[in-house]
Design goal:
single chain, alpha/beta, Purple Acid Phosphatase, chain A, domain 2, 3 domains, about 25% strand
């Protein structure tokens, strides 16, 4: 069984207020071309297809285009589940008709079941979309479910493969597995906790295609895997490759996995340098990349981000190294302010801001300003 495992497309996503739909379209066309070359037996899409429950029209059009090319044009079976960002009911609209075209969409609390076959015989797939604990309690009439782990365990027990199947099973799920490595761009699955679930719920499956975590990663020796997000959605993902898994499973359930990267038109990068060097092109790479810039200058630069955008139009944010170092001070390094004068407090603030002490003339000017403003040398 040859499988392509992808997830977390987040169609309609905004990045610092900028639409990413064109970037996503480029990557998905690359994905479709790869699928046509690899000729998989099935494509697995593990949730968070959209970025929000009511996606923008261009995101809906993009999904329609991609699925039409995969299912109608190329003839690939596609199994797709909803994630925590999706509206399950909207995503699964028309699934009774889709099933006839080999597009199987599941967004229900009860796991879906799909059977496919290869040269070695049938393979049974369990489709386990995201569902919050309260919804599971209500639909399964299970008031005793305390958390996400208990809820997914109850749902897992509700699934049984169709009668007369073979000995190979694959799961498609959207959840935060215990031990997984998150990124900044993911939405937490619970309030006040991780919402993590035990990997043991997927014991017995030869492969589990996971969605939710945006970092590609293998768990339990590769038997469970996150394909990661379609593209980088936060700057802490700058060092990650993005792509999908190509998985081959033989008749005994043995796996061969290969991670195949997708290359965006515009990368997401973190760069550092002095303002003058950066203005001369020191950031390297594609100047149209999405950039987070750390300036090494020892004082603020006037209109820095506007001027940098003349060279790097997609500069999303800037920061200063001296400010980052000051914010890293531990509480023990910060002195008590209760017995200090306003001038002393300002001196401390100025040193924290620019990592330099006030000069004597600066101190005299500030003392006069404080005296003029509140009297008594500024102590009040």
């Amino acid at each position: 069984m040859r499988m392509l495992h992808t997830s977390d497309w987040h169609l309609g996503r905004l990045f610092f207020g900028e639409s990413l739909t064109e970037e996503q379209a480029t990557l998905l066309r690359e994905f479709v071309a790869a699928a046509k070359d690899l000729r998989p037996d099935v494509i697995l899409i593990a949730g968070d297809v959209y970025d929000r429950s009511v996606p923008p029209a261009d995101a809906v059009e993009l999904l329609d285009e991609v699925l039409a090319r995969l299912v109608l044009e190329a003839g690939f079976p596609v199994l797709m589940i909803s994630g925590n960002h999706d509206s399950g009911k909207r995503l699964a609209f028309g699934n009774r008709f889709f099933d006839r075209s080999r597009l199987h969409v599941c967004s229900a609390v009860f796991p879906g079941a799909v059977r496919l076959a290869d040269a070695w015989g049938p393979v049974d797939f369990m489709l386990l979309p995201y569902a919050d604990t309260e919804t599971v309690r209500l639909e399964l009439d299970a008031d005793d479910l305390a958390d996400a782990d208990a809820a997914i365990g109850r749902r897992r027990k509700a699934w049984t493969p169709p009668v007369g199947g073979g000995n190979r099973t694959v799961a498609l799920a959207h959840a935060f597995l215990a031990g997984g490595k998150p990124s900044e761009s993911e939405r937490p699955l619970s309030v006040g906790g991780t919402g993590a679930v035990a990997t043991g719920h997927f014991d017995g499956f030869h492969y589990t295609a996971m969605g939710h975590l945006h970092r590609p990663q293998l768990i339990a020796g590769g038997r469970l895997a996150y394909s990661g997000s379609l593209m980088k959605y936060s700057f802490d993902e700058a060092g990650q490759d993005k792509g999908f898994y190509f998985v081959e499973m033989d008749g005994a359930g043995n796996l061969r996995q290969e991670f195949l990267p997708l290359r965006p038109r515009r990368d997401v990068r973190v760069v550092a340098g002095s303002f003058q060097d950066l203005m001369k092109g020191a950031a390297g790479g594609n100047p149209d990349d999405y950039l987070s810039i750390t300036l090494l200058d020892e004082a603020p630069v006037i209109q820095a981000i506007q001027r940098l955008r003349n060279v790097y139009p997609n500069t999303m944010e800037i920061s200063y190294r001296y400010q980052q170092e000051a914010l890293a001070l531990s509480p023990a390094q910060r002195s008590d302010s209760s017995s200090r004068s306003a001038l002393e407090l300002f001196e401390t603030f100025a040193e924290w801001s620019v990592q330099k002490s006030l000069t004597a003339p600066q101190r005299e000017i500030m003392a006069k300003l404080l005296t003029d403003a509140v009297g008594g040398g500024g102590n009040e």
